[in-house]
Design brief:
The complex is a heterodimer of chains A (45) and B (281). Chain A is an all-alpha fold and 45 residues long. Chain A is 84% helix and 0% strand. Classes of the chains: A mainly alpha (45), B alpha/beta (281). At the A-B interface, helix 1, helix 2 and helix 3 of A face helix 1 and helix 11 of B.
Chain lengths: 45, 281
C-alpha cells in the first residue's frame, strides 16, 4: 500500500498537466460564444 | 432561444443544458417532452412540459404522432426561427416539426450511438441516417462522435464539435468525510452500460482489507450489485452511497478514481476526478 501511496504522490506532482487541460473546459464565456457562433454561421449559410 | 429536450433528469447532457440555459444572457424557453425534471433552471428560463408523465423509450417512439401534435401546438405559439434539441427522441421531433412549421433545426448528438446501440443499429442506423441528414446542423460533444456520424451513419449535414462544459465545484461546501482506509471511488448511474460489476469483481481480487470502494450513484442495478458484493465477500469494504447531490465531497476524500463505462460520449465525471487530482483507471 505504501508503494501505491508513493506512486500517487508522484502522480500529484505532475498533475499540473491535468489542471491545465481542465481549465480549457471551464471557460463558460468561450463555450457560449462557440455555441452561438455555430448557430450564426449556419444561419449565414 | 428555444431548447427541446426529452427531459431534464440526472445525466451529463441534461447538466449541459442546465449550464447553458442558466448562463445565457437572453430569455430561454426549454420545452421538455416529459416531466422528468431534476435540475434547477435560472430565472431567465421558461420551462414547458409537453406530457405530464415519464415514458420508456419504446413507448415514446410509439407515441411519436401524439408528441408531434402536442409539441406543434406549443411551438407555433412562439413562431421560432430555430430550435436546438438535445436528445435522440427530441431530435427526431425537432427535425420533423422544423420541416412542417418552417424553422431551422439544430440537433445535439451526445452519445456514441454506433457503440451504444450495438446490434439495435440494424433499425436505428437507417432512422439516424434519414432524420439527421435533414437537420440544419449537428452539434456533438466529442470528435469521435462526429467521425462516427460521418463514417458509420453517412451523415452529410454540417457537424460541429463542442466539448462539454465543466463548472468548478464550490470548495467551501465540501464536507470532510471520515476516512480510515485507502479509498477507490466510482461515480455513475448503476446501469449495464456503466459496467460497475467489473469494478466490484476487480476490487475483490486485490488486497481489499486495507482499502474501500465507494460507489456513488443509483440505478436499476443497485440491488444486483449489492448482492454481487455480498457474494464476492467484499460488502463490508464497499460503500453504496446511492444518489447524492454532493459527489465532490466523496471525490475530495478519495485516492483513486475507477471508471468502467462500456460506452460514453463525453464523461463529465472524468473531468471531475481530474479536477480533484485523482489518478483515473
Amino acid at each position: 500500500m505504501d508503494e501505491i501511496r508513493n506512486d500517487l504522490n508522484l502522480y500529484r506532482k505532475f498533475s499540473i498537466l491535468s489542471q491545465v487541460r481542465i481549465n480549457y473546459y471551464m471557460d463558460i464565456e468561450k463555450y457560449i460564444a462557440q455555441f452561438k457562433n455555430i448557430l450564426i454561421k449556419n444561419e449565414a449559410i | 432561444m428555444i431548447f427541446l429536450v426529452d427531459g431534464l433528469g440526472l445525466g451529463g447532457s441534461e447538466r449541459t443544458v442546465q449550464i447553458l440555459c442558466n448562463n445565457l444572457s437572453e430569455e430561454v424557453i426549454v420545452i421538455s417532452l416529459t416531466n422528468d425534471i431534476k435540475y434547477d433552471l435560472g430565472s431567465n428560463v421558461i420551462l414547458l412540459t409537453v406530457f405530464n408523465a415519464k415514458y420508456p423509450g419504446y413507448l415514446k417512439l410509439l407515441m411519436l404522432p401524439l408528441f408531434l401534435i402536442r409539441l406543434r401546438r406549443v411551438l407555433v405559439k412562439f413562431k421560432p426561427s430555430e430550435v436546438v434539441s438535445f436528445h435522440p427522441f427530441a431530435n427526431i421531433n425537432n427535425i420533423l416539426l422544423a420541416k412542417l412549421i418552417g424553422y431551422r433545426s439544430y440537433i445535439s448528438e451526445r452519445q456514441f450511438s454506433e457503440r451504444y446501440y450495438g446490434f439495435r443499429n440494424i433499425y436505428i442506423k437507417p432512422i439516424i441516417n434519414f432524420f439527421y441528414n435533414k437537420a440544419n446542423a449537428i452539434i456533438c460533444n466529442d470528435l469521435e462522435i462526429k467521425e462516427s456520424l460521418i463514417r458509420y451513419y453517412k451523415i452529410k449535414t454540417d457537424i460541429y464539435v463542442l466539448n462539454n462544459l465543466f463548472v468548478r465545484p464550490s470548495m467551501t461546501h465540501l464536507e470532510s468525510l471520515p476516512k480510515s482506509k485507502f479509498r477507490y471511488i466510482t461515480i455513475g448511474r448503476l446501469s449495464n452500460e456503466k459496467n460497475t460489476r467489473d469494478i466490484l469483481k476487480a476490487f475483490s481480487k486485490i488486497d481489499y482489507n486495507h482499502c474501500e470502494l465507494v460507489v456513488v450513484g443509483n440505478g436499476p442495478n443497485m440491488r444486483k450489485l449489492k448482492k454481487l458484493a455480498i457474494d464476492l465477500n467484499i460488502f463490508n469494504n464497499v460503500i453504496f452511497t446511492g444518489y447524492t447531490t454532493d459527489p465532490f465531497s466523496y471525490l475530495n476524500s478519495s485516492d483513486v478514481f475507477v471508471f468502467s463505462s462500456l460506452n460514453e460520449g463525453f464523461p463529465n465525471v472524468v473531468l471531475e476526478a481530474m479536477y480533484f487530482v485523482l489518478p483515473i483507471f
